[in-house]
Amino acid sequence: MTAALLDIHGLRQSFPRADGGEHLVLDGVELSLNQGQIVGLLGRTGSGKSTLLRLIAGLAQPSGGTVTYLGQPVNAPAAGIAMVFQSFALFPWLTVLENVQLGLEALGLPLPEIRKRALAAIDLIGLDGYESAYPRELSGGMRQRVGFARALVVHPNILLMDEPFSALDVLTAETLRTDFLELWGEGKLPIKGVILVTHNIEEAVLMCDRILLFSTNPGRIISDIPVDLKQPRNRLDPQFHDMVEKIYVAMTARKPAPMQIGTVPAATMNTVLPRVSANLLSGLIETLAAPQFNGKADLPVLADELAMDSDEFLPVAESLQMLRFAEIEGGDIKLTDIGKQFVELATDDRKKLFQRQLLAQVPLAAHIRRVLQERANHVAPKSRFRDELEDHMSTEDAEHTLRAVTAWGRYAEVFAYDDDSETFSLENPT
Amino acid sequence: MRVNVPISAGAWAGLFSRWDVLAFLLILGLLVFLGEASRHLFEPLTELQQTPTSLDPRNLPEYAARTTLRMLIAMVLSLIFTFTYATLAAKSKAAERLLVPLLDILQSVPILGFISVTVVFFMALAPGRVLGAEFASIFAIFTSQAWNMAFSFYQSLRTIPTELEEASRNFRLSPWMRFWRLDVPFAMPQLIWNMMMSMSGSWFFVVASEAISVGNTTVTLPGVGSYIALAIEHRDLVAVSWAIGAMLVVIFVYDQVLFRPLVAWADRFRFEQEPGALAPESWVFDVLRRSRLVERLTEPFAALWRLTFRPRRGDKPALVARAASGAPGRFTFQIGVIVASLAAVALWQVVSFSIEGITLADVMTTLVLGLATLARVVVLIAIASVIWVPIGVWVGVRPRIANLVQPVAQFLAAFPANLLFPIVVSVIVAWKLNPNIWLSPLMILGTQWYILFNVIAGASAIPNELRAVGVNLRVRGWLWWRRIALPAVLPYYVTGAITASGGSWNASIVAEVASWGDVHLQADGLGAYIAQQTDAGDFHKIVLGIAVMSLFVVVINRLFWRPLYYYAERKFRLG
Known about the structure:
The structure holds two protein chains of two kinds. By secondary structure, chain A is α/β, with parallel strands linked by helices. Chain A folds into three domains: 6-252, P-loop containing nucleotide triphosphate hydrolases (Rossmann fold); 278-342, Winged helix-like DNA-binding domain superfamily/Winged helix DNA-binding domain (Arc Repressor Mutant, subunit A), CATH 1.10.10; 353-425, no CATH class. Chain A has 15 helices and 16 strands. Chain A has a six-stranded mixed β-sheet, with helices on both faces. The longest helix of chain A has 17 residues, at 395-411. Chain B has two domains: 54-270, MetI-like (MetI-like fold), CATH 1.10.3720; 334-575, MetI-like fold. Chain B contains 23 helices and four strands. Chain B has helices spanning 18-38, 46-50, 60-91, 93-108, 111-125, 130-158, 162-170, 175-210, 224-233, 237-266, 283-290, 292-307, 330-357, 360-396, 399-413, 421-431, 435-438, 441-444, 448-460, 464-472, 477-511, 526-536, 539-572; strands at 211-214, 217-220, 513-516, 519-522. In chain B, the strands form two sheets. A two-stranded antiparallel sheet of chain B has the order 1-2. A two-stranded antiparallel ribbon of chain B has the order 3-4. In chain B, helix 6 crosses helix 8 (175-210) and helix 10 (237-266) packs across helix 11. Chain B is globular and about 65 Å long. Chain B starts with 17 loop residues before the first helix and ends with a helix. The A-B interface holds A 13-16, 22, 54, 57-63, 75-77, 79, 81-83, 85-89, 91-95, 97, 102-103, 105-108, 111, 131-132, 134, 136, 150, 154, 420 and B 1-3, 161, 163-164, 166-174, 177, 181-182, 185, 188, 268-271, 273, 303, 306, 309-311, 316-324, 326, 571.
């Protein structure tokens, strides 16, 4: 048995918060990467998986714990760990060839060797003929190929991939995944292990030998799922489908005591609200109520039907749950009576029902409304609530949460908000 | 290596192509020019007095060459300054805290003030030689170019996309390699635009920087600037026209040989490529790029350059700081001590300097004069806005006209106010007008064009769809201006107005005093005060005037322009 390429122990990352406390992004991460493995880091936005990738790359320092690469602690970008970026991160002023040569030039290799290796990588990754093109002349798919060639050419032991296919359209992404897996399977890639960050459940099941599931706020590994399906994998394979379903269940399960019927945890003042538009919410309710589903649907099936990937879809489903329009259980989503009632109503009455649910289930919305009512002029600055939220969450999350509650509050006509003066009020402009 | 399609394939393939010949000529011309122009540098100063500046137009080519060379050297110095100063400010948190405000102040110090104060120092550097005076002149031109370039570079460095920054760290680029592969290319388009503005701006001050006269020290360096000064002294209208002609030629050549190729070349460094935008073109750039000779000549240098990218032994990638390190570093204290002691020394100097030669009454006088100049600047900016915003919008939504107007405006921006002295002075004298009012327009002569430039840029950036909506809803007349045009150009207008206002303060030193032969006109204002004290050689009062003017500019920027800028950016920036 060979030693692990990468070992991570008790890794923690936190940032100082406005009130002097700390905002925990990653906590207690244990991970090891063995030769020949593709490990997937799967989680929602805010699960710290990209942060983890940057810690491995030596682009940031952890607040606690260790990252060890081939027995050496990582405290600066290490030779032998290369990264593929979500947004490609190509240098627009360098040609394809120059972009690929970049890492080799930094190594200080002699020019003939640089040229030879770069051309070999370009050839391998299917970029022949594009050597003198500038990135802006290429399609997204070709650009990401350059990203891959640039990382592979330095012959890294570990390839880090940060959602490398998420900026591409569905077809292009699939082609690139397949090409990559083929080269990997045939042992043509000069790498020994891969860490893939993704929020796409199917992508993870398609590519990885092991999937680490991350919780959000803070990011912790909640599940370590081996994927034993044989490559090449087929999305239509029932086993593949089961695996996807299983991960959906795990991702929507509630933390300490899962599956306690009737006790969906209520939102509190500290809940970070997702930014989901009211239109999306009513759209999902309508879809669920359609005869095809009749009020109950399998989460992956529904996501597929709506052509949404899990990262877009789950916040919508969970918002419905938070507002008690639906329940999520065992990978299924089911309309509640309130949800069914919503479908029957006309626009104005829907708003009233939404208003009722919002005030009852989202404490922050009720809180803002109460403060506005108590004040003589019915006006309160945004900063008042922002400060309150920042005691419990990061500045960014506070901003997101406020925007989310503002959007819902406006739709439900619970309060008005003026962005110029950054104030909430009870009055709508007349 | 880039695959270049040879322009003249076939029988000629092995020999020189015509592009090679052209390129060769261009380079040779540049070499001759540099050799000729720098030949006189080490002549003793007395030589200048023996062959004083003459109004013979046959001397103009040589004068133009010398002026051009000075501006070029100053530009190179400005670039060096930009690369070091701005990099330090962007990379070091501690340095940033001091360097950015410092730059902000430097920017507001009137350029002619630098000359008055530093000329003696530079003359002393190379006593008795032309070199000292050349230093002073080049330094003055440098001060009119460097600050906005450094600012632009600093701002570019601050906005480098995170992923590119991470990629260059992930691939372990050395700081040196990163600078040339990431920092400079990313900043290039913005920097070149600022270089062009700087060049225009420095023409405005060329007259003052070549005909230096502080108290008893009077030096006239051969150049277009001194030629203009002499022509004004001698009331020679023909010579003034010759000077305008020479300037036109030089600006045109600069544009064709230097800036247009640079802009065309820098196009590849643009980070975001808006679709449909035409790539800038330049024949000189095409010649250089297509010539195999040039490529062969530059290739060894490029290879040598790449060698410097190699990591040195013992080079280790920089350790990254922990995210949660809120405590101040060890060095901050030491730097604090150094800065504090420097500040103490400076304060002591300023205080002793002031006690020596400045009275409270002087301070009050300059403040009142500052208010007079302020009133002029405000009124002039308002008038210029009323004139140029509508015209700029009108031009901006018509791309073809915009392409014609841009170069003309660029030339006008470079037009030194002194060249209009003959007309203005004659008119004021003939009609017995009040110089307090009628000298003022000279202040905004060179700077109003920045309003026009920016408004044109803003108007041409209005998305077609937005304009289509306007047409579709039949939004016309005043409503169109109020709801579509003016909001869309506001962020651009503010940028232009800030430049114009700063420039007008600067220009007041030239514009509040005008002379034509022996007729001297003067308006009451801070600019005239500084010009007067410079003539008298009263250093205390020069410094006082400069300090008060800088103070005015900084305060107005902080209190008025900056908030307005952020407001416009937040509310009206499209996209």
